[in-house]
Amino acid sequence: MGREALRIALQVIRRYPLRTAFLVVTNMTAVLALIVLVVVMQSLQAKVRELFSSQGADILYLTRRPPVLRATDLRRYEGYPPISMAEVEFLRRQLRMAEAVVPATYDSVDVAFQGRSVRVAVQARSADYLAVESLPLYAGRHFTPDEDAHRRRVVVLGWGVYRELFSGQDPLRRWVWVGGQAYRVVGVVRERGTLLGSDLDTVVWVPLRAWRGARPDVDYVILRPRPGRENELMEEVRFWLRLKRRLRPAQEDNFGLMTTEGFLDILRNATQALSLALVGVVGLGVLVGGIVLMNILLMAVAERTQEIGIRKAVGAHPSAIVAQFLWEAILLASLGGVAGVAAGLGISYLVSSVLGLPWTFPFWVAGLGLALTGVSGVLFGYYPARRAARLDPVQALHYEHG
């Protein structure tokens, strides 16, 4: 009986190609949204973890302000003082749980060479910056403590800057203009890729003292704790900086302090918010697809009333009628699920490529999408199937549609 119902259901689906295509597209939408959002979120998390792995999961960041999560936070943190070099040197003397304390500033300027120019992010850091970030070299070397101490204008180029300015030529010992000042190239970092469309290779690294000049403050400080001592280091930094700034016990911290894991927590919270939106989108898509499916099946029952009457008149059991219409509903919904999985694979790969994310496809999300559409077919197809099974054969044989 099941095979016969399935065969009849397939024949009916082939008989109405436009109706089938409309239902497939309707049910495909929910699965497509589910797959694209899940894949992109997981790819984003994988990319961020990959970037932080070059620094280490225990790295600590001291910033002028905590992360701004709401508009009210910006007004609240507006009066926080910048981090001065005097405070950095004070922390270097006092901290016992830190292996490295690296002050840094960030700027966006043009780098030019022989008429060619590119906009870059300038990372000005103290010479021990390799203690907090892994930057493998393509050519040359990193700048030295002596060059930082004596304010030497030397620069390490990111791969994208080297590619744009030198086009494969040897850049070492050449002079480039960084923000209007001449710097000698000493090294080139290997290609690092992109994140969310932002090129991680259009970056240059310069000695902090040469770049700061007489500037008395820095944008942030990167700290590497001794192994297993990240919590103790965080408490040390908080204690000594509060002491330096003469904060009373009742006053809150007027600086930001966060670990790499803290940044990942913010990312996870953001993706959880997206997940709630995802549930809404998918739920709405399944509901709309199910309602459309139910209404079209009710129309099909009305159109095929005489056919149902003939089948019942020759002895077809009501359960066979129910099975036929349920199979139609399940097949139509599942075709939408399969189409959604196929389209989701392609679109998620395209989005990940455009955003520079590693494409990872969790197969459970494809199974979830197919299961949702299958269950939708059963739930929304049951009422039309029961209605068809309850038709009186005598009335059905004399029924004229439209």
Describe this structure in words.
- The chain has 402 residues and is of the alpha+beta class.
- The chain has 2 domains: 2-50 and 265-397, no CATH class; 81-254, no CATH class.
- The chain has helices spanning 2-15, 17-53, 71-77, 85-94, 145-149, 159-166, 208-212, 230-244, 260-303, 305-313, 318-355, 363-389, 393-397; strands at 60-63, 83-84, 98-113, 116-125, 137-140, 154-157, 175-178, 181-189, 194-195, 198-199, 203-207, 217-218, 220-225, 256-259.
- Strands 3-4-11-6-8-7 form a 6-stranded mixed β-barrel.
- A hairpin with a 2-residue loop joins strand 3 (98-113) and strand 4 (116-125).
- Helix 4 (85-94) crosses helix 8 (230-244) and helix 9 (260-303) packs parallel to helix 12.
- The chain is elongated, with a radius of gyration of 32 Å.
- The mean pLDDT is 82.
Low-confidence blocks of residues: none
Which structural class matches the secondary elements?
alpha+beta
Strand neighbour order, sheet with most strands: 3-4-11-6-8-7
- Cα-to-Cα separation, first versus last residue: 31 Å
**Element string (H = helix, E = strand):** HHEHEHEEEHEHEEEEEHEEHEHHHHH
**Strand proportion:** 15-25%
Q: How many structural domains in the coordinates?
A: 2
In round numbers, the mean pLDDT is 82
Largest sheet: 6 strands, mixed, barrel
Number of helices: 13
Give the strand tally: 14
